[in-house]
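We were asked to recover a plausible sequence for a given structure. The inputs and outputs are reproduced exactly as logged, with field labels preserved.

PROBLEM: sequence recovery
POSITIONS: 227
GIVEN STRUCTURE:
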């Protein structure tokens, strides 16, 4: 199973250690060196889980967690060298899914990440979707169309998964980002339309005819079960 994790921690050596080990286990690790950069990355891409250090300069881990929870339900594991019970309680009350005290072994960390994902996102641990010639391996975040691999951005893939889970049914435009688990995206007047347009092109839809993703005027979009 492929897992995409964002590490928000100012310790570059920790990232190098985890990147080597987790990469060998099929985990893709992205690094943000502080809270502000971490929030920025979460707004740009989709991750299965976040590893968040409590002690960071500037925006500390608890404040970063509070801001994450304002926009996303992504699982968050707090990393801390502190032994203070009060910090753990505050973090859990703010919405942390687990606490991992430093120092820790990469093997234990991965086991905890997998345990959190089994509890919080069981559907993402082995979900495969197929409709209209499209096949999506959700945990691996891989897409093929008529047997051809297609590269999508994080938000494009999340929108496609949301439509495929409701194939044959209309998903209202106003609800599509929420259905895709992308409440963290700032919704402009044409945000959804722009992403859907790009997604259609990558799927090979003909803009002059009814393709895989069809517009229901004034309502939203529907992924046809058959193109």
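RECOVERED SEQUENCE:
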């Amino acid at each position: 199973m492929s897992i995409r994790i964002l590490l928000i921690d100012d310790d570059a050596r920790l990232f190098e250690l985890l990147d080597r080990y987790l990469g060998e286990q099929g985990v893709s690790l992205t690094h943000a060196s502080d809270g502000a950069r971490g929030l920025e990355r979460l707004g740009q891409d989709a991750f299965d889980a976040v590893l968040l250090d409590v002690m960071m300069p500037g925006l500390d881990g608890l404040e970063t967690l509070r801001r994450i929870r304002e926009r996303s339900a992504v699982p968050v594991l707090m990393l801390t060298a502190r032994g203070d019970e009060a910090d753990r309680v505050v973090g859990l009350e703010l919405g942390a899914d687990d606490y991992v005290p430093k120092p820790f072994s990469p093997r234990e960390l991965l086991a905890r990440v997998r345990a959190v994902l089994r509890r919080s996102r069981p559907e993402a641990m082995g979900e495969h979707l197929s409709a209209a010639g499209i096949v999506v391996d959700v945990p691996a975040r891989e897409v093929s169309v008529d047997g051809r691999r297609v590269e999508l951005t994080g938000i494009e893939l999340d929108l496609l998964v949301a439509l495929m889970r409701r194939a044959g049914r209309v998903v209202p435009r106003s609800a599509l980002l929420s259905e895709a688990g992308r409440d963290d995206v700032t919704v402009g007047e044409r945000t959804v339309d722009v992403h859907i347009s790009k997604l259609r092109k990558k799927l090979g839809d003909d803009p002059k005819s009814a393709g895989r993703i069809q517009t229901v005027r004034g309502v939203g979009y529907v992924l046809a079960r058959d193109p």
